[in-house]
Amino acid sequence: MTTPAASRPFVRYAALQAAAIAAFFFVPLEARAHALWQVLVGWAAAVAILAVRPERRPGAAAWYLFAAGVFLNAGGILVAAMSKSSAQTVGEASVVDAFWLALFPAFAAGMAVLIRHRSAERDWASLVDAAIVTTGFAVVSWVFLIGPAATDPRLGVLGRATAVAYPIGDLVILGMMVRIVVGGGIRNGAFLLIVAALLSFLATDVGWAALGHAGAQPGPLAQRFLESGSMLGYALFGAAALHPSAAQITETRSRSAASLRPGLLAGLSLASLTAPAILAFEVARHDVADGGAIALGAAVLFLLVIARMALLVRRVEERTRELGERNRAMRRVLDTVNEGLLRVSRDATLLVERSARIDRWFRPFEEPLPFVKYIREFDRDFAAHFQLSHDALAEGALPVEVCLAQYPSRLCSRGRDYRVSYLPVADGDQNDGLLVVIEDVTEQVRSADQDAHQRELLAMFQGFIRDRAGFGSFLEEANRIVEDLASPAAQDVAATRRLLHTLKGIASMASLNLVAQLCHRAEDALDEGPGATAASIEAIRGRWVGLTGAFQMLVGDQSFDGIAVQAKDVDALLAEIANGLPAAAVARRLASWRDEPVERPFARLGNYARALAARLGKGDPEIVLEGNGVRLDRERWAALWSELVHVVRNAVDHGWESPDERRAAGKPSQPRLRLAARTDAHDLVIEVEDDGRGVDWGAIRRAAAGRGVPARTRDDLVGAVLSAGVSEREEAGPISGRGVGMAAVASRVDEYGGRIEADSREGRGTCWRLSFPLPVLGGDSQSSMMRQKATGGILASEEAGADRERKCVE
Amino acid sequence: MMKKVLIVDDSKTVRGQVRSLLEEAGYEVAEAADGREGLEQIRRSVDLAMVLCDVQMPNMTGIAMIEELKASGLIASLPVIMLTTEAQLTLIARAKEAGAKGWIVKPFKAEHVVAAVNKLAR
Fold first, then answer.
1. Are the Cβ atoms of A405 and B112 closer than 8 angstroms?
2. DSSP code, position A685
3. pLDDT digits (tens, 9 = 90+) for A434-449
């Protein structure tokens, strides 16, 4: 073990002094060395105190005073030895007494310096405590020491004064010691050494006094013990100065000045009982000699105890006032804060401490009550959810932070929305329930709703401006679906699912994302039962009615039933009429204008693909539209375009890879979608072709097998894709993957008497080919499918450009 | 030996997420795509430390699966946590009644799943 450098001098000094004191017992009493030994120990201590250069320390004066006291007291022994006077017994005063008594004022002054440094403020309580203890001892001292010495007939006036000075000096030192011990300040090694030194001196003095009182001469061993007590006192002062902690001895430590520790309380009780105890002692001996002194001591002690009590009461009153003020300040905080704050204990009791908002938003309460019962009056679902979560927290199966994340975060009460969060309250290491923080988010929710509503309205208006007729047919179809959904006849889950899916498709194509979201949620709700389904369908209906109502107000009663004809077509017809085109031909041509050029629904699908691709991070696609002059009856074919949304969506969501994947596969990063219509000898052919990753036939085979659909040949697999519930996706995303869309396409194509083929190669893309036999289009429709001269086989999908050339004929 | 956790969810994405975050936390992960598959795996393997289970799944829901576990007494020795899309109260209450240890709402935080598994895995 090594000794730190700072404590090395202390250790050496302590060892040296301990050896010196031990050796003292072997020095012959009569030898001159006997006195000299004591003097050297004392002076060594004084030198040690000065050797640490106390001027560098705060409260340096205390150390000089201690050194002086030790030096003079030890010097007294030398003087006594030289003058051969017997100073150990009570006798006449001599110059030796002056040396010895010098210790008292020096130590008292040194202690006063220390006490002043160690107290941050006036400490009346410690002062009174010290006074009580000192008075208690003073009564004893009066009876046994001071009184007898003051009235000793053997002594002269100076002798009596000297004899009285010793016990009085001891009382002063005792008082200072009690004061410094009970007062604030650091209690380090140096401090304890000083206290030990003082105790050592006091004990030695009491020993001499007891011998003197008994009138006995000490034996050689007792004398050595008493002398070594003084030497120990010297040595301890030196040790205190050398101790590494000595420099910090003047530091204050805050301490409740009024507090009564058990030890202090016992000391004070004992001290204040000395007067009655001595009285009882004297009464028992039938010799009450000190009645006056005892009465005086008792009176002083009483007054001191009352003073101590007054200090305590004043402190308590101060504290109470402070606490009251702090309480009021806290209340002001809770009254002002915008959040609703409340505390729920571990057993789900709502505690009374809360912010004012709670009373305003919910209702006031005076006593703690079950939180679930309280909050159930306002939001039953929240209450039930809270109960479930709080039970889980109490069970402790999951970690606290995981449990807290599962608590209900939304609360609705009286038409207002609240966001709720939870903080665990800790009492030390113990979990002490929750702090529940409630915020009113009604305005945020409302404005978010309004923003969404405005955005949708804007989207509708843009759709209307861009393509009146197309938008009209969208409105018509969406209206029909919403009606069908809401009608009580629509109980068939499969039919409802198909309607929802179609509505979701056309709504998202028209950028009505909220409606599309509601449809998606309703599809989820189908799994949860009729109640949830009805509620979610009602939500769609409400949204739709609100939206279309607002839209009608915006655009008024404008007809969607217009016909768009390009100016050059009109010019061409006029020129032909001028050249004598027969009336029947003119009529046929005009009739054909009622039909829609197929580029228009294609353009809508293309725009949808572009918007979806942007949303899914698939880049800006190249959209290729090939109309080949095909015009189709708008009303008759509207339903097909609605279903083609599914095909386009599949291409964008499933087919196209991300730009990174495409580059990695050596493809152009820009994905491509081709929408084409043409007629050949027998059929109208519509193709939707993407250049994505192709159909994952393996996944289709697995999905088909899971549902018991045949999956052996390629035709089986195409059939499987077109049957409800089979998807290559294992999960439904918000865009596609439920295995519903392609089934809807198939059933629609079937209605038109058409057929579907799929041509898909892995990594190359998929082409869906829909063929409709021309005769099926009907006698009069034959005319609506007319081949125009190639007006540009491939049109870019720049719809705005096409629009500019169109005009609306009412 | 590494502890083995079974994730039962019809979403491949969720299974993948749970797998990667649990593997990172030092667990072995087994997957099942629905309740029926989950039940089979639980019956077959004796070394499962715990099960994370979705609520809504085709073929057999998570609720049906855990009720089956309760009926066969397996639940006593196998901690199960439900993963729910939203806090579906009635379903959670049923799952708890059948012996599920708790639930975590999707979308979940990775550290919550790991903390729950750390605490519960046998």
1. yes
2. E
3. 999 999 999 999 898 8
B chain contacts of residue A395, beta-carbon cutoff 8 Å: 101-102
Give the pairing type, strands A410-413 and A622-626: unpaired
Q: CA distances (Å), B18 to each of A153, B47, B84, in order?
A: 102, 19, 14
Please name the amino acid found at residue A717.
Answer: L
Whether A524 sits inside 8 A of B109 (CB atoms) is: no
Residues A675 and A602: beta-carbon distance below 8 Å:
yes
Which of A471, A562, A555, A552 has the alpha carbon at shortest distance from A511? A471
User: Which residue in A395, A408, A731 is closest to B12 by CB distance?
Assistant: A731
Cα separation, A619 vs A612, in Å, equals 10
Q: Where are the alpha helices (DSSP H) in A596-738?
A: 599-615, 634-650, 659-664, 697-706, 714-721
Question: Three-class SS of residue A781?
Answer: helix
SS3 state at A188: coil
Task: Kindly provide the ipTM of the predicted complex, given to two decimals.
Answer: 0.91
Tell me the chain B residues in contact with residue A381 when contact means C-beta distances shorter than 8 Å. Answer: 89
CB B80 within 8 A of CB B99: yes
Chain B's closest residue to A397, CA to CA, is B101
How many of the other CB atoms lie within 10 Å of CB of B122? Answer: 10
- Residues of chain A with Cβ-Cβ distance to B112 below 8 Å are 399, 401-402, 405
Does A398 sit within 8 Å of B101, measured CB to CB?
yes
pTM: 0.55
Radius of gyration of chain B (CA): 13
B95 touches A at CB < 8 Å:
no
Which of A402, A527, A730 faces B104 most closely, judged by CB atoms? A402
Contact between A211 and A91 under an 8 Å Cβ cutoff? The reply is no
What does DSSP say about strands A806-809 and A765-773: parallel, antiparallel, or unpaired?
Answer: unpaired
Helix and strand element counts for chain A (H, E): 32, 16
What is the chain B residue with the closest CA to A525? B56
Q: What is the pLDDT of residues A652-662, one digit of tens each?
A: 888 898 888 88
User: For the segment A8-63, what is each residue's pLDDT rounded down to a tens digit?
Assistant: 899 999 999 999 999 999 888 877 888 999 999 999 999 999 998 888 888 899 99
Q: What is the DSSP code (8-state) at residue A89?
A: S
